[in-house]
Write a structure and sequence with these properties.
One of its GO terms (molecular function) is heme A synthase activity. The protein has 357 residues and is mainly alpha-helical. The protein is built from twelve helices and no strands.
Length: 357
Amino acid sequence: MRIWLYLLAGLVVAMVALGGATRLTGSGLSITEWKPVTGAIPPLSAADWAAEFEKYRGTPQYKILNDGMGLDSFKALYWWEWAHRLLGRLIGLAFFLPLIVFWLRGALDRRLGLGLVALGVVGAFQGAIGWIMVASGLQPGMTAVAPVKLALHLTTASVILAGLVWLAAGTRSVALAPAPGRIRAGSVALMLLVLVQIALGGLVAGSHAGLAYNTWPTMNGRFVPPLDVLFATVPWIENFVDNLTLVQFNHRMVAYLVVILAVLHAFDARLSAPGTGAARRAAGVAILALAQMGLGIATLLLAVPLWAALAHQVFAMAVLTMATAHARLSRGHVAVATAVGEPVVPFGFEPLAGRTT
């Protein structure tokens, strides 16, 4: 089961990577309809391709950015988006079919079963969130999806990844002692902060704020831009989404916060729990956070080339995976056995065992 969960986590990372490539190539709006079942079949004839191309030619993106595009160029866009949606469908099958098998075999206890059901519900909603995101880019005057919806889509995928890693880390058959309380709290704080940073990164990607200031460590000579620039939009709350200066500034500042917290946490773990798995995991999180910051700086200075932007997005998933595994294992783990030798009742089989709770 642990192998299955980690394989699912790997598929989610691949989905994030493919989604990033779809966004960076401008392919996300090439399929203008949401057909969860029949949409798995791509155009199979010249007439089918002509019909799909005609639908795309009615979108604002085509009229504003791609007017005059040929059919071959459209096909290149279409295949990126189609592959992204197909992988989403395959992930759904790879999740639900083995889940049914494990459930029927009685391999799920209550905690794991409820966790998997919750992830299944979030995953089902993720498909709808993806379409809501695409639909926002098909509105009049839009040439790309709304940044907030893109950030929500990316963050939801990240939550699913974190959930899979959390559950997988908790399926170990050997007991593990919990880390000291401060290490446990710090590990959870790090995991949550990484999720916040990924959401802010989604806003940067969706609004192309990474192209606004391509200098470091300052933003065109200022470490902190003037307040009248950071909050130039009225009402002020919209600056957090629409003001490219504030969007990039927030992403930079939280990146510094992640790295500082990760390094301090690693030193704390080394001093308070030397030689333990918690200390090694904390060091791993700090190293990955530092590497991710370096990759982010390179992406910024190079004016966001496709390869660097994609690597930065995928490596964020590596940081999240490590931070999540660290947070879960720092809680400790009890071996799957009872003190009196009574077998654990599998999830969903309580009535058959004469139990109602």
